[in-house]
Amino acid sequence: MHSFEHRGRCRIAQTDRTWRFLTRQPLPYLCFFHSSDEEYPLLLPFIKEGLDRGEKAFHVVDPNLRGEHLRHLESVGIETGAAEQSGQLELRNWHEAYLRDGHFDQNRMLALLQSVLDEAKQQGFPLTRLVAHMEWALEDRPGVNDIVEYETRLNYFLHCYSDPVVCVYDLAQFGAAAVIDIMRTHPMVIIGGVLQENPFFVPPDDFLCELRKRQSRNNKSVAS
Q1: Which of its termini does the chain have fewer beta carbons within 10 Å around, N or C?
Q2: In sequence order, which residues have a C-beta less than 8 Å from that of residue 104 and are 6 or more positions away?
Q3: Are 198 and 33 in contact (CB under 8 A)?
Q4: Strand, coil or helix: what is 168?
Q5: Those residues with Cβ within 8 angstroms of residue 209's Cβ, 6 or more apart along the chain or in another chain
Q6: Is residue 115 within 8 Å of 153, Cβ to Cβ?
Q7: pTM surpassing 0.85?
């Protein structure tokens, strides 16, 4: 039986050490499931450290919370205006990323992220720290049900990069079934304030096969 005990875990209370642990991983791709009071206390040291080291920050945020996000960054001394002007900090809202043209196209989003990481390297940034808020998947838009397949497929191309990618999920907004599926797509996870290797991670080939079988069963059920 899988559990989260003693699997390379790292207490978030030691925040700086925790995020350094993340950036040393072979595939620093993780999901961060948070309560309302955990989100920014855990993210801000990670974001600020990267900017202080001359790395790029690429964030995808709720369009209604862009101002609040910037205020959080400024609360720890990040000069957001200067960072955005220089290109070191890039903020996009959901409609400029996941929901362009009003729908989610996973192939287009995968291409966008690859382009972001490649262009940052070309611009001379040693690393990109990518933070994406994922509540866009709760909107009533075409394609949003492909989120689990998309998160699984990210593992394929992120093997070619050392840039940490953090998918941020508000536990209060996602149901248990969605949380379990999403968790299984990430090699690392933060949950309950602990960053650790994910014992529930399923390699993408296996999970995509499972998703296809699941879809086939659903199609047969509808047909009958």
Answers
A1: N
A2: 98, 136, 137, 141, 142, 143, 144, 146, 147, 150
A3: no
A4: strand
A5: none
A6: no
A7: yes
At 5, list the tokens: 């005990």
Mean pLDDT throughout 186-210?
Answer: 92
Calpha distance 210→215 (Å, rounded)? 9
**98's tokens:** 């996941």
User: What value does the mean pLDDT take over residues 61-79?
Assistant: 97
Angle at 91 between CA 79 and CA 65, to 5 degrees: 90
Closest CA to 165 of 112, 104, 93: 112
**CB neighbours of residue 64 within 10 Å:** 9
pLDDT at residue 23 in the model: 53
11-53 per-position pLDDT tens digit: 444 455 555 555 555 558 999 999 888 899 999 999 999 999 9
Could you tell me the end-to-end alpha-carbon distance of the chain, in angstroms, rounded to an integer?
A: 36
CA separation for the pair 153, 108 (Å, rounded):
12
Length of the chain: 224
* 3 state SS of 176: helix
Query: Burial level of 141, CB count in 10 A (0-12/13-18/19+)?
Result: middle
Residue 152 host element (H or E): helix 147-158
